[in-house]
Amino acid sequence: MAAREALLDRAMGPGRKRKSSEKLRRGRRPSEGLAFVAKDANGTLVGTVRLWDVRLGTGGTALLLGPLAVDPAVKCAGIGSKLMRLAIEEARRLGHAAILLVGDAPYYARFGFTAARTAKLAMPGPYERERFLALELVEGALDGAAGTLKPSGRKTKPARVARAA
Predict the structure, then answer these.
(1) Which residues have C-beta within 8 Å of that of residue 142, sequence separation ≥ 6?
(2) Which residues contact 147 (CB under 8 A, 6 or more apart)?
């Protein structure tokens, strides 16, 4: 969706595709039923969040949330919080056990995210350890979890190429 990519570029800047989280999303589709957008009264996209399936180094699974982005023109209107609550509740309803993300700890703490459950986990590539956070949707879901996250879930379909006769 071109509108989502344009919003992500405005909200996150040009370096967004070099982040460790992007390595886990590249070539994958969001987890089934876990891609959300917010639109204004005119139907313009003003917010987005998606969750992605990942495999923990020790073999378990979790979701990776991100990016959460809100159009800078409407920041502080509660759109990000509403998208977060929706994403968490829907992930819980669909039976997922844990959500991981890399983000601002004070912002995500209000939703229950903490760095305490990610101490033995790692992202592929550079990241700031104190920003690697987790929320267990099922108590104990990350007990014993260790190692580097790996992408999993549905792959994107390769673009079809028309061949000239």
Answers:
(1) 56, 60, 62, 98, 117, 118, 121, 134, 136
(2) 56, 57, 58, 120, 121, 122
What element of type H or E holds 37?
A: strand 35-39
Instruction: Answer for the pair 69, 50: CB distance below 8 angstroms, yes or no.
Output: no
For 163, phi and psi rounded to 5 degrees?
-105, 135
Would you state the structure tokens that stand for residue 27, as one six-digit string?
A: 């070539």
CB 149 within 8 A of CB 100: yes
Q: Note the pLDDT tens digit of each residue in 10-45.
A: 666 666 556 778 888 888 999 999 999 999 999 988
- Which amino acid, residue 131? R
- 120-138 pLDDT tens trace: 999 998 889 999 999 999 9
Domains of the chain: 2-151 (3.40.630.30)
Please state, as a whole number, how many other Cβ atoms lie within 10 Å of the Cβ of residue 65: 27
Q: Kindly list the distances between the CA atom of residue 23 and the CA atoms of 19, 50, 89, in Å, as whole numbers in the listed order.
A: 7, 15, 25
In angstroms, rounded to a whole number, what is the distance separating the alpha carbons of residues 8 and 46? 10
3-state secondary structure at position 135: strand
**pLDDT tier at 109 (50, 70, 90 boundaries)?**
very high
pLDDT on residue 126: 87
Query: Among 6, 114, 95, which residue's Cα sits nearest to residue 53?
Result: 95
